[in-house]
Write a structure and sequence with these properties.
By secondary structure, the protein is of the alpha/beta class. The protein folds into three domains: 183 residues, Cobalamin-binding domain (Rossmann fold, 3-Layer(aba) Sandwich), CATH 3.40.50.280; 97 residues, no CATH class; 233 residues, no CATH class. The protein has 23 helices and 25 strands. The strands form eight sheets. The protein has a ten-stranded mixed sheet, sandwiched between helices. The protein has a three-stranded parallel sheet with strand order 21-22-23. Strands 5-6 form a two-stranded antiparallel ribbon. A hairpin with a 2-residue loop joins strand 24 and strand 25. It is globular.
Length: 686
C-alpha cells in the first residue's frame, strides 16, 4: 500500500485459501475484476480467526469487506465423507491442515464486524452460494437456516458474481447504502416485509407437496390437498389447476412476482417440504424465467433474487485476461500449494453445466447455461502460460472447465432456452433442442496443439461421454492427441436404480464410448486405457446394486485405487433424497417415490468394499454380506467368483476356529494355515 501510495483500501477480501493470483482462484478473479474498475483492493488470506488482529492489518475498508470461505466449502475441505478430519488442505502452503475454521464464512464475517463496526460485509463463494437458503447440513445431520442469518452478513452474492460485484461496488462508491441495493440479480438478503409491488405466489402452486405419513385412505375424501403454508391437509373445492390459474392471474395485476417457499421452521422438521423446496428452487434456476424466491426464518424473510444473466463471451474474456501473475504470493516462498500445482498449466475455457447431475453443485452455483470464452482468448492464454509461467515444460495439463466438452454447446432456440424448466438437458436423454456439435472444440484443440512451443495439450476435466459420442470426430481428436495414456471418465454406476437418481446415462452409453476409444487408440498406434470413476453409497443404491457393480468391475478387469463415497452437499437434489427419502427429480406428493439411502457406517463401508472387491482387507465383510444376500456362489477361488474363500495372514479378520494354545486354528481355505506342533501344515485350497 505504501509503494502504491494508498492510504486505505476501498475493498478488502478475506479468503480461506492461500492467495494465488490465478484465474482458477475466486479471490484473485474478484480482486482483479474490481482493480480493473479502478478500486483499490486488498486481500487477507487465511487470517488467524482467534482475534481481530489479522482482520485489521490493512485498515478499515472504504466500501466493504468481501468474505469467502475459499474455492471449497470449508466443511467439505476439512472433513471426509465419513466425517473424519482430513490431515491436509490442498489450498494451504505445504498442505498444512487447520488453517481455516469450520464454517469459515460465518467466522470471518463475525470477525470483520468486530474489527470495524458499521462496515458492510458481503459474502460470496461456493460456501455462501450453496447455503443461501435453508439447507441440510451433513455434518450436523440437521437443516440449518440461511448462512445470511448465521453470519449476519449484509448481502450474499451467489454464483459467478463478477457483474453483480462491479455494480454493487460502484453504487456503494456513489453513496448508496447497502440496504438500498435490492435489485441485483444473483443476490440474497434479509427483509422484514415484501414490497407492495410484488405479488406472492405460494410454491405449492408450482409443485404441490404432500406428507409422507399417513398413506392415503382409499375410502377417504380424495378432495384433500396439502398447503405449503401449513403443511396440513385442507379441503379443496376447486380443481388445483383452476386455483393456480386464478392465483397467477391475480399475480399479473402487479409488476413482479415472488415465490414463497415453505418456512425454515417447516422444512427443518418436514422432509417432504424440504424435498419440495429443493425441487422448486431448481425449477426456478433458469435466468430466463426464474422468479424471486422468499423464505421466512422466524420473523425475518430471506429474499433470493433470480440468478445472474450469464456473461457474454466478451465479458468472460475480460475476466480471464486481467494481469494475473499466475503464481502464489511471494510471501509463501518455496512452499508447495497442491491446488495451485494441479491447475497452474491448465486453462478454463467455459463455465456452467447442463448435465444436472443430482449430486453435483455446479448447477446450483454456475447454472446450466454455458458461458464460453472466445477461441482467441483461450489461445492467447496458452501463449501467456508458455511465456511467463515458471516451470512450464510445454504441456498444457487441461483445456476444460466443469465439463470438458460443453464449450459452445447451447439450446438451438433462445426462446425455448429462456422458457425451459428441465432439470437436465441430457437426462433421461439428450434434448432434441440441444446442439451437440463439438466440431468447434475439435478445431480449438487442433489450433492449440499447433502453437509453437506446445508439446502436448491434455484434457483432464470430466468428459460427458454421452455427448462425445454424438461427434465421432471429437472422440478421434481427443483419443489421438490429448490422452496421456489414461483417460478418466465417470459413469458413476452400472445399475439403473442409482443412475436414475444421479441423472446419469446408462452404462450402455459408456460401452459405446469405450468401443470408439479403443478403435481410435488402435488407429493411432497407442496403448491407452479408460479409467472409470464410481460413487459408493449414493441415494437409491442397494447392496445388490453395489454387488452387480463389483461383478462388472471384475469382469472388465478394473481395480479401483481410490473410492469416492457419496457426501450430501448443501442444496444438491441428491441431498434432499438423502435427508428425506423423497425424489425431487419428480413431482413431490404423498405417493411420490421413496428413495432408500445407505446411511449407516457399516453399510457405507460395505458399499465401498464392493468397489474394492480385490482388497483382502475387504474380503471378510464381503463374504458376510454375500452370504446374507444369498450369493455365496460368488465366494470361491475361481475366475467366476468375486472374493476368494481364503484369507491371507495379516489381512482382514481371520476365519473363526477353535483355538489351541492361544493361536487360531485356521481352516483349509486360508493362505498360510498355522503350524501346530506335531502336525504338518496343510496346503491352501486352490
Amino acid at each position: 500500500m505504501d509503494e502504491l501510495g494508498w492510504d486505505s483500501c476501498d475493498v478488502i477480501i478475506v479468503t480461506g485459501d492461500a492467495y494465488v493470483d490465478h484465474p482458477s482462484f475466486g479471490m484473485a478473479v474478484i480482486g482483479r475484476t474490481l482493480e480493473a474498475q479502478g478500486f483499490r483492493v486488498g486481500i487477507i488470506a487465511q487470517p488467524d480467526w482467534s482475534s481481530t488482529d489479522d482482520f485489521m492489518k490493512l485498515g478499515k475498508p472504504n466500501l466493504y469487506f468481501g468474505v469467502t470461505g475459499g474455492n471449497m466449502d470449508s466443511m467439505v475441505n476439512r472433513y471426509t465423507a465419513e466425517r473424519r478430519i482430513r490431515s491436509d488442505d490442498a489450498y494451504t502452503p505445504n498442505s498444512e491442515g487447520g488453517k481455516r475454521p469450520d464454517r469459515a464464512t460465518i467466522i470471518y464475517t463475525q470477525r470483520c464486524h468486530e474489527a470495524y463496526k458499521g462496515v458492510p460485509v458481503i459474502i460470496g463463494g461456493i460456501e455462501a452460494s450453496l447455503r443461501r437458503i435453508a439447507h441440510f447440513d451433513y455434518w450436523q445431520e440437521k437443516v440449518r437456516r440461511s448462512i445470511l442469518l448465521d453470519a449476519k452478513a449484509d448481502i450474499l452474492l451467489y454464483g459467478n458474481a463478477e457483474r453483480a460485484i462491479v455494480e454493487l461496488s460502484h453504487r456503494l462508491a456513489a453513496g448508496e447504502t447497502i440496504s438500498q441495493i435490492r435489485d441485483l440479480r444473483g443476490t440474497a438478503f434479509v427483509v422484514k416485509k415484501i414490497p407492495d409491488d410484488y405479488a406472492i405466489l405460494d410454491s405449492s402452486h408450482i409443485d404441490e407437496p404432500g406428507a409422507i405419513e399417513p398413506h392415503i385412505n382409499p375410502y377417504a375424501d380424495t378432495t384433500q390437498t396439502v398447503s405449503c403454508k401449513t403443511g396440513q391437509s385442507t379441503k379443496q373445492t376447486t380443481p388445483s389447476n383452476v386455483v393456480y390459474l386464478e392465483k397467477h392471474l391475480r399475480a399479473l395485476d402487479k409488476p413482479h412476482t415472488v415465490v414463497r417457499l415453505p418456512d425454515y421452521e417447516q422444512v427443518k422438521t418436514d422432509p417432504v417440504l424440504y424435498a419440495h423446496t429443493s425441487r422448486v428452487i431448481h425449477l426456478e434456476s433458469n435466468p430466463g424465467n426464474a422468479r424471486a424466491l422468499i423464505q421466512r426464518h422466524g420473523k425475518r424473510e430471506v429474499w433470493l433474487n433470480p440468478p445472474p444473466i450469464p456473461l457474454k463471451t466478451e465479458e468472460i474474456d475480460r475476466v480471464f485476461e486481467h494481469p494475473y501473475q499466475r503464481v502464489p504470493h511471494p510471501s509463501y516462498g518455496d512452499a508447495r500449494i497442491p491446488a495451485y500445482e494441479m491447475i497452474r498449466f491448465s486453462i478454463n475455457i467455459m463455465r456452467g453445466c447442463f448435465g444436472g447431475c443430482s449430486f453435483c453443485s455446479i448447477t446450483e452455483h454456475e447454472g446450466r447455461i454455458i458461458q464460453n470464452r472466445s477461441e482467441k482468448s483461450i489461445l492467447n492464454e496458452i501463449e501467456t502460460i508458455r511465456d511467463t509461467t515458471p516451470g512450464f515444460t510445454g504441456i498444457i495439463s487441461d483445456l476444460g472447465g466443469p465439463t470438458a466438452n460443453m464449450w459452445r454447446l447451447a439450446c438451438k432456440d433462445k426462446i425455448i432456452e429462456q422458457s425451459c424448466r428441465r432439470l437436465s438437458c441430457v437426462h433421461p436423454g439428450i434434448c432434441k433442442n440441444m446442439d451437440t456439435d463439438q466440431m468447434p472444440l475439435v478445431q480449438l484443440y487442433q489450433k492449440a496443439r499447433h502453437i509453437p512451443g506446445i508439446k502436448k495439450i491434455l484434457i483432464a476435466s470430466g468428459l460427458r461421454y454421452d455427448i462425445a459420442v454424438q461427434t465421432p470426430a471429437y472422440v478421434k481428436e481427443l483419443v489421438t492427441h490429448h490422452v496421456g495414456g489414461y483417460l478418466k471418465i465417470a459413469p458413476e454406476h452400472t445399475e439403473e436404480g442409482p443412475l436414475s437418481k444421479m441423472m446419469k446415462p446408462g452404462i450402455g452409453t459408456y460401452d459405446r464410448f469405450k468401443v470408439m476409444f479403443e478403435k481410435y487408440s488402435k488407429e493411432a498406434g497407442k496403448e491407452q486405457y479408460l479409467i472409470p470413476y464410481f460413487i459408493a453409497a449414493h441415494p437409491g443404491t442397494t447392496d445388490k446394486d453395489m454387488m452387480n457393480l463389483a461383478i462388472w468391475l471384475k469382469k472388465n478387469g478394473f481395480r479401483a485405487d481410490q473410492v469416492q463415497a457419496y457426501l450430501p452437499s448443501p442444496m444438491a437434489m441428491a441431498t434432499a433424497m438423502w435427508h428425506g427419502g423423497k425424489n425431487p427429480l419428480h413431482k413431490i406428493s404423498r405417493t411420490s417415490e421413496n428413495v432408500f439411502s445407505p446411511r449407516g457406517r457399516k453399510q457405507r463401508r460395505l458399499h465401498k468394499a464392493f468397489l474394492r472387491y480385490h482388497d483382502p482387507e475387504n474380503w471378510p465383510i464381503l463374504r458376510e454380506a454375500l452370504k446374507k444376500m444369498g450369493r455365496a456362489d460368488l465366494i470361491g477361488n475361481g475366475k467366476r467368483h468375486l472374493v476368494p474363500s481364503f484369507q491371507p495372514r495379516g489381512t482382514g479378520a481371520q476365519p473363526e476356529g477353535r483355538r489351541i494354545k492361544g493361536k487360531a486354528f485356521l481352516t483349509k481355505h486360508t493362505a498360510r494355515p498355522a503350524k501346530i506342533k506335531g502336525k504338518k501344515r496343510s496346503k491352501p485350497a486352490r
